Amino acid sequence: MIYELFAKIYSRLRLIKSNAIALIYQMLPGIWFRKMGRNCCFYGVPRFGYAFRDIRLGDSCSLGVGVFLNTGANSQIKIGSNVGINDYVYISAIYGIEIGDYSRIGEFVSIRDNDHRFSDPHRPICSQGFTGKPIKIGSDVWIGRGVFIGKGVEIGDGAVIGANSVVTKSIPSFAVAVGSPAKVIKYRQKSVETVAI
Ligand SMILES: CC(C)(COP(=O)(O)OP(=O)(O)OC[C@H]1O[C@@H](n2cnc3c(N)ncnc32)[C@H](O)[C@@H]1OP(=O)(O)O)[C@@H](O)C(=O)NCCC(=O)NCCS
Questions:
Q1: How confident is the model at residue 1 (pLDDT cuts 50, 70, 90)?
Q2: Is 116 labeled as catalytic in the residue annotation?
Q3: Which residue's C-alpha comes closest to atom 6 of ligand 1?
Q4: CATH classification of 2-187 is 2.160.10.10, yes or no?
Q5: pTM passes above 0.90
Q6: For ligand 1, is residue 176 a contact (CB within 6 Å)?
């Protein structure tokens, strides 16, 4: 009984702290987020590659601990409303990354729209620049923990990506895709038992 009470108080305090962290970012318009919606909740202090970049966050989003958002000088990260981003998610956009409303991103996910160029074997890879294409993740997409999503990938609305998958090609709407490389194993549909009469 007493433990339940402590648990309730702890979770309430945690929520107050998370809302307060988000509020601080909202009070710094333009520095970290070009646009930030209302009622967001940050469980940790997000990290950014650079300040004054084009990162947009909708309403009622939650960001876990250790989230890293990195944007190039001319690119944008656009996150819709009601998006949940779990702990230690890394989003790196040189070309542009968009995540639709109600999507869920599991912990340790890496979304990167760019790769190092490496064609010249006689020069260090880190001196050869980048290549890439924008990434678009639709609405109500569920991305399992540990997933990698690479350059040019489009994930359609309502798709599910299984844990630890490596997504290098686009995935259609409402597909369930798993593995490395991620392949569609089925499509979401209501089972006969759950159809409302
Ligand atoms: C994909 C997932 C949602 C399961 O969906 P499901 O419809 O119940 O699928 P099933 O469990 O029936 O699996 C179907 C097949 O895909 C395989 N599979 C499921 N998840 C897989 C994964 N992540 N990687 C590789 N294969 C996977 C199963 O082994 C099974 O293979 P089989 O047909 O050869 O037996 C689940 O496995 C998963 O990855 N969940 C992510 C959980 C998570 O990361 N949460 C983070 C919090 S946001």
A1: confident
A2: yes
A3: 176
A4: yes
A5: yes
A6: yes
